Amino acid sequence: MWKDLRACISFIARASPRAVVVCGRGKNFCAGIDVSDPKTMFSTLGDVEASCEGRRREALARHIRSLQDVFTALETEIEAPVIACVRGACYGAGVDLITACTIRLCGRDARFSVKEVDVGITADVGTLQRLPSIVGFGSANELALTARVIDAEEAKRIGLVSEVCEDVEARAMALAMMLASKSPLRCEARRECCSARETSRTSREG
């Protein structure tokens, strides 16, 4: 899945779109990692075999960096605004993904959780680096430490999403069309401004 997503982002970037909408397929945006099968879960997390513990840790670190690079590509490779369109559950990596997007919209049924602490792992694919600049350090810390599920209205109140919509996909497409009608030069200006935003750390810097 990660390789496919990375390839998809590169394909979109080469097409030079004026706006991009990211939606989930089905009733949920992202239900999070599958914890029902430990073998599958640790394979997704990058469980690797190595001749010694040091090499295993090194290989795991490389794997995590490759996952971080997938979502970072949304910010660095796609010049156009990227709109996250959330319905249903947005847990774990779903939050990693939407925090890398330019604009976040959700439906009234949306719910969000930085779920990693509940399965004993760290949200290490970008959430901990991006979320504080979106919702503030206090809210980001509380969400990451408790894995609490928040609904659409709370997400709007703390600034995680810009709008709560009756028909989120229709609203996202209308917004994308409006943004696409504007000068593409604003994309470069936006990227310059965003790169100069808070001196926040990148996902690779931790």
User: In total, how many beta strands?
Assistant: 7
The mean pLDDT is 84
The rough form would be described as globular
Radius of gyration: 17 Å
Query: Main sheet: which strands, in order across?
Result: 1-2-4-7
Tell me the strand percentage band. 5-15%
- List segments where confidence is low: pLDDT < 50 over at least 5 consecutive residues: none
The helix content is 40-55%
In whole angstroms, the N-to-C terminal distance is 24 Å
Number of helices: 9
Order of helices and strands: HEHHEEHEEHHEHEHH
What structural category arises from helix and sheet content? alpha/beta
Biggest sheet overview? 4 strands, parallel
Q: How would you characterize this protein structure?
A:
With 206 residues, the protein is α/β, with parallel strands linked by helices. Helices cover 50% and strands 12% of the residues. The chain has 9 helices and 7 strands. It has a 4-stranded parallel β-sheet with strand order 1-2-4-7, with helices on both faces. Helix 4 packs across helix 5 and helix 5 crosses helix 6. The protein is globular, with a radius of gyration of 17 Å.
Task: Give a short summary of the structure.
With 206 residues, the chain is an alpha/beta fold. 50% of the residues lie in helices and 12% in strands.
Q: What key phrases describe this protein's structure?
A:
alpha/beta; 7 strands; 206 residues
